[in-house]
Amino acid sequence: MSDPYVKLDIVNEVGYIEFFHPAHNSLPGDVLAELAQTITDAGTNDAIKVIVLKSGGDRTFCAGASFKELININDDATGKVFFSGFANVINAMRKCSKFIIGRIQGKTVGGGVGLAAATDYCMATKFAAIKLSELNIGIGPFVVGPAIERKMGLSAMSQIAIDANTFYPAEWAKEKGLFTQVFESTEALDEAVKTAAEHLCTYNPEAMQEMKAIFWKGTEDWDNLLAERAAISGRLVLSEFTKETLKRFK
Q1: β-sheet bridge partners, residue 62
Q2: Taking Cα atoms as reference points, which of 84, 144, 138, 77 lies closest to residue 117?
Q3: Count of structural domains, the chain
Q4: For the chain, how many helices (H) and strands (E)?
Q5: Is residue 211 included in any domain, yes or no?
Q6: DSSP code of residue 180
Q7: Residue 207 domain-assigned?
Q8: How far apart are CA 22 and CA 14, in angstroms?
Q9: pLDDT tens for residues 116-133?
Q10: From the UniProt record, which GO molecular function terms apply (predicted)?
């Protein structure tokens, strides 16, 4: 099995940020922290004009938070830190002055849907079904909810949050505004991502920076908001209901 990683490759002024974890690209706290820092650093790197966020492997974009860490939370403080991982990545994406293109090659669950929603332009394959499964274990998509609601609307977000057992197809996610385009294969997706990213590099960087600021207007309180949401999840994960549910997964 390969070791988890986060890496940045710069090709033709495009910064390709790739994360990987052998457990279906689930993200433990250390990988989330490295991902947030890599996004922040890429945002200030003059050699990069546009960023692409992608994951390794073919089948799953991101399975969400690390279940192994989730079942080991035993106090409020640890819970808040755990759930702040995705908050920190989303806020890094929000504050980054450069456009971030999402490359979603396969299924994405929970926090992974939040990452896709926090990109500025998101492209996927037909295999990129999405699911918010948090309610199944007694919590909810509190941290990623604002990013998903911003991109898809409250109605769509609440639908998949309540229907926590169902994978919604990529075409549905496109109809709701999460994905801009859906492709038949990963190869077609990669070609389209490359073309789009390199074309954006020909535009005025200042214009793109100003546009990004406008796109994210109204989210200035997200540092506090997502921290508050992380605290809610951190409290709920200690509930008797969730503890009993998690025992069945051990």
Answers
A1: 108
A2: 144
A3: 1
A4: 11, 9
A5: no
A6: S
A7: no
A8: 26
A9: 999 999 999 999 999 999
A10: catalytic activity
What's the pLDDT tens digit per position in 47-71? 999 999 999 998 899 999 888 888 8
Looking up residue 91, the CATH number of its domain turns out to be: 3.90.226.10
The token pair that represents 169 in the structure block: 């197809």
Domain that holds residue 121: 5-189
List Cβ neighbours of 241 (8 Å cut-off, separation of 6 or more).
138
- Over the range 157-171, which residues count as b (16 or more CB within 10 Å of their CB) and which as e? bbbbbeebeebbebe
Is the pTM of the predicted complex or chain greater than 0.85?
yes
Torsion angle (degrees, nearest 10) of CA 137, 139, 143, 149:
90
Q: Is position 152 within any domain? A: yes
> What's the CA gap between 11 and 222, in Å, rounded?
32
- Identify whether the C-beta of residue 174 lies closer than 8 Å to the C-beta of residue 140: no
Q: Do you know the residue count of the chain?
A: 250
Q: Is residue 159 part of a domain?
A: yes
